[in-house]
């Protein structure tokens, strides 16, 4: 059953990583202009 | 795109014909702004068959874009006809220096509202043009809020050049006042999103652990493993509840402090009790832990709040954008004869201002010099322009249409009629009673009842049955947990999110969180006429003699008068005339080969009663006359055009049992005609804003719930006084700001749609509340008797929440009618 300890640890670390990434993207303003982002991809150069 | 580099406006024979100009449509629309070319005098800028422009501004903008190598713009854009056309026009000059902010590192920043953004290609075009400017650090357009943020190095004066580059393309830029920048709402949005992220993370992981425990029951999991799982859950859930629960705790504390209770009180209490009790159980290595239901509840509730907030923020951004566009400066004529742009508020009474054609008049005053016509639809609701001359009174908020005016200021800023209307609106808004939403009305009874039951349980077990205090407390807590308002708290928000999202996709913005519930109560709809039931433009009535029609349209080409525009729109492209002269407020005269031709009012054409036949003698409808040498004078009658599906909507509303009332500031004849066409019996004409409020109030006193639909400044006060209000997207900014919901597009159909959806939403909300209460009523006796086991509680809670969510999803289906 010791494998459980590792697995729970890994899953929590992955989840926390995802959370940290989301908070970072939120802080850097990536959710401020969702319409613009959807359109910008068509015009990159 | 053809590789020919186009500088200037000599565009003929451009090798291969580019895609955007190859069709026959190129003959009818301007190659830059896409507006129909209707034989205006400016077709002289047409060069060759491929490119035609409506004005020199468009031609220059086209040349600029091509010379920068950005011609791809024209093939990739999608023009949105409901937006302001992309035509460069002489715009108001702002004193930009007042709005520039200097950052610590010497970088200057400026935020501007962009008017005329049509699609993603516009964003690309603006950013590409700016990218070619030296010294620019960043120039980025936010498409959601339609704002441009400029940052550059060097002196502040560079702003003029940067702004000029974009205005030259046809966009209108208005600086944002730093004080007006609503940073607060943006922060609220981010706080909620952060709380949602934390709750989501916790809910996922705690659920994972909880599933382990549940499955472990069947597979005989050792108690040591279960305790480990519980401790891990507690470790994740406690900080998550403390952080993600904050929005609810704050609101609950606020309500309690004000001596009220709202839905957030039972939510906060439920979450805290569940978490606290689970923690105690974990410490005692007991089995009654429910961390997962606490965090799941927070996660679902936050999801609802975030979606709701997003939808309303969108609506608010639209309103702010419009508000910024209204910010205006006026041209002050100083005693020494020089002109200076000053903010509208700082204008002293008695000063002299200059108003160019097309400009909005910034103050109330008397015309001192010049003759023109003004569009007063914003103030009076009258659809036809009013002629003004020396000595006429003009009001702030009206638009000068034809010729420059010099105006002696009588009142400016907060003492103008415009400001007076705004004050009326505020007063009416304050008078409107606070609407208590359904969920809070339920919470008012629910919270004390549940908490009373829990106390009674504790009392009976402890004192009545002489059970140990610890056990009694556990049973009392289980009552609170089983009645934890999971389903109840989700009952209303789940419906609101689904309904708001659905309306948003149909182009209906709900600005107020209580709008849906107030709409469901409505039984009477009041419509304004001009601009609400009818479209903002006129339509030519009947098809007159072709030859006269073409001549009249050619003359009309030089004028910006709404009737001339309507004539032109009906005629299609016609060759322009040269040498025609417009007389402000009266008409157009042209020295033709056979003698003088006149197009204009009956007096301008020199008509007397003897020239008029039967019905022509009565001037009920707007008209233009054409007088030619050796011909009978020809009359062009115009009518207001009803919005598409206006009649259908009114009929549908009446069939559904709604009372339909027409309330207009316009003349009785015009109102009667529209009322007859739509089959509305209750029509009121010539109402002032105050009388409109009185009409709304009298209906309310008769026990009706009133939906007011209006678009003008004069509708503003009555919009605020009604139980709920709606505006078309073409409405004045003030009306849109006041209205609880704004619908886009030309059709009037959204009014009927939103009313029927609101009724269905209310029905689903009630079903949800019924489901939640029924579940509680069934479970509470079990909990009070102490029979609740962890698996039963978990199953019952999930089942009731799921039932509520699934029931709400039914709104997604079916039509709105």
Fold blueprint:
The complex is a heterodimer of chains A (45) and B (817).
Chain A: H1 2-27, H2 34-40
Chain B: H1 19-22, H2 56-67, H3 72-76, E1 101-102, E2 108-115, H4 120-131, E3 136-142, E4 147-152, H5 158-167, E5 172-175, H6 183-218, H7 223-244, H8 246-257, H9 264-283, H10 291-326, E6 329-333, E7 339-343, E8 352-355, E9 363-369, E10 372-375, H11 377-380, E11 386-388, E12 393-394, E13 399-400, E14 405-412, H12 417-431, H13 438-464, H14 469-482, H15 486-505, E15 508-510, H16 515-521, E16 524-527, H17 529-533, E17 534-541, H18 546-556, H19 562-571, E18 581-583, E19 587-592, E20 595-600, E21 623-627, E22 634-642, H20 646-655, E23 659-663, H21 668-678, E24 682-684, H22 689-701, E25 706-709, H23 716-721, E26 724-728, H24 733-738, E27 741-743, H25 749-784, H26 790-809
Helix pairs in contact in B: 6-7, 6-10, 7-9, 7-10, 8-9, 9-10, 9-14, 10-15, 13-14, 14-25, 15-25, 15-26, 16-25, 18-19, 25-26
CATH superfamily of the domain at 497-535 and 643-759 in chain B: HAD superfamily/HAD-like
Quaternary class? heterodimer
Overall pLDDT of chain B, averaged?
A: 77
DSSP helical segment count of chain B: 26
* CATH topology label of the domain at 497-535 and 643-759 in chain B: Rossmann fold
- By DSSP, the count of extended strands of chain B is 27
Question: Radius of gyration of chain B from the CA trace?
Answer: 33 Å
Most residues in contact: chain pair: A-B, 23 and 25 residues
Structural class of chain B: alpha+beta
Strand content of chain A: under 5%
> Measured on Cα atoms, how large is the radius of gyration of chain A?
17 Å
CATH hierarchy: architecture of the domain at 497-535 and 643-759 in chain B:
3-Layer(aba) Sandwich
* Low-confidence runs of at least 5 consecutive residues of chain B: 1-26, 40-49
What can be said about the biggest beta sheet of chain A?
none
Strand segment count of chain A: 0
Helix-strand category of chain A: mainly alpha
Query: Roughly what percent helix of chain B?
Result: 40-55%
Report on the biggest sheet of chain B: 7 strands, mixed
From the spread of the alpha carbons, the general shape of chain A counts as: elongated
Percent in helix of chain A: over 70%
Question: What form of chain B results from the Cα inertia axes?
Answer: elongated
